[in-house]
Write a structure and sequence with these properties.
Blueprint: E1 11-17, H1 24-40, E2 49-54, H2 61-71, E3 75-80, H3 86-97, E4 103-106, H4 117-126, E5 131-136, H5 144-159, E6 172-175, H6 176-183, H7 192-199, E7 203-208, H8 222-236, H9 239-267, H10 275-308, E8 315-319
Parallel strand pairs: 1-2, 1-4, 2-3, 5-7
Antiparallel strand pairs: 3-8, 4-6, 5-6
The structure holds uridine-5'-diphosphate and magnesium ion.
Magnesium ion (MG) is lined by residues 108, 110, 112, 213, 218.
Main location: membrane
EC number: 2.4.1.83
Domain Glycosyltransferase 2-like: 13-179
């Protein structure tokens, strides 16, 4: 059941940026154009704005953001004290706009996601939806490897009962109350894609086609992709721990059966024991144990990090255009 249609929101578009100097001006120009046209036809309020979050870039990204803020009344900049990673940068941006907006859209700086979908997202918001997922129609612009690994990952997550919208990255709209709810999840190891569906409220999807990156290179090399996948699994479910217990149980049963078999062979006088079977079983058991310890260790590590309650990020600076936004 949807609530009443809503009036035009004060919208913030949050863009995490890490070493995006090659694409920043294009990104600014495109998003600004879109925002202005949405203001013009009264889809959003006139005081809607863009927030660029500089995630500890080592290039001129922050200088470009500062310049953009001084030249444009609809641009704000948030500087983190160091590189914290995409998810933390995004959370920092969301937290910064939380009090002042009716709705927020998050999008990557490379604009691989179709910005025209934002208009549809706002329309869905106005129709009463609180969460609007940007969902890719296909993955043709991805490499074969990225496509296959992503599909495998979604299937793996689904098999462990984690609700997640397929082919949706962090391109989405959140209403003020959905955003507030999301920010109440105070875990250090936040996997936003897994948390948003847990927030509830009325949600819908907007389909779009994702293009290739225009400039700069992906800030998500295989190492970071694997880390995000690991984060996603271990921060959302304890099923891997259960699987280990199940595996251990299975192996115990197997060893009882083997023991019975060995005893029978012994009494029937057929005792040819090669070292190979022993060595093989030692290796196998060693492998299983190491793997199990590794998975358990991963969770214990998480508990350790969570108990410290360390801050997820530090804001160094929040800049706004003084002329227009004096608060
Ligand atoms: N990003 C970030 N911090 C990081 C890595 C990436 O803020 O440590 C930002 C990056 O600037 C971009 C978004 O996260 O806006 C997604 O990165 P990218 O487009 O490189 O990922 P891909 O599309 O290749 O998965
Ligand atoms: Mg990208």
């Amino acid at each position: 059941m949807l609530t009443q249609p809503r009036s035009a929101p004060r919208l913030a578009i949050v863009v995490p940026c890490y070493n995006e100097e090659d694409i920043f001006s294009y990104c600014l120009q495109e998003l600004k154009g879109l925002l202005e046209s949405m203001v013009q036809d009264a889809t959003v309020q006139a005081d809607s704005f863009l927030l660029f979050v500089n995630d500890g870039s080592r290039d001129t990204t922050w200088e470009q953001i500062t310049k953009a803020v001084s030249e444009n009344r609809c641009v704000q900049g948030l500087k983190l004290s160091r590189n914290e990673g995409h998810q933390s940068a995004l959370l920092a941006g969301l937290e910064a706009v939380n009090v002042s907006v009716d709705a927020v859209v998050s999008i990557d700086a490379d604009l691989q996601d179709d910005i025209n979908a934002i208009r549809q997202m706002v329309e869905a918001y106005r129709a009463g939806y609180d969460v609007v997922y940007g969902v890719r129609e296909n993955r043709q612009t991805d490499t074969w490897f990225k496509r296959t690994s992503a599909e495998g990952f979604y299937r793996l997550m689904a098999s462990m009962g984690i609700k997640q919208v397929s082919n949706h990255a962090d391109f989405r709209l959140l209403s003020h109350r959905a955003l507030g709810a999301l920010l109440r999840y105070s875990e250090r190891n936040a996997y936003i894609r897994g948390l948003v569906p847990m927030v509830g409220f009325a949600s819908t999807q907007v389909l779009y086609t994702r293009s290739a990156r225009l400039a700069g290179e992906s800030k998500y090399p295989l190492r970071k992709m694997l880390a995000l996948a690991m984060e996603g699994i271990t921060s959302m479910t304890v099923i891997p721990l259960r699987l280990i217990a199940l595996l251990g149980f299975g192996i115990c049963i197997l060893s009882i059966v083997t023991a019975v078999y060995v005893v029978i062979r012994k009494f029937t006088g057929n005792v040819v024991y090669g070292w190979s079977s022993i060595v093989l079983s030692i290796f196998f058991m060693g492998g299983v144990q190491m793997l199990s310890l590794g998975v358990i260790g991963e969770y214990i590590g998480k508990i350790y990090l969570e108990t410290k309650q360390r801050p997820r990020f530090h804001v160094e600076n929040l800049i706004k255009n003084e002329e227009t936004d004096p608060q």
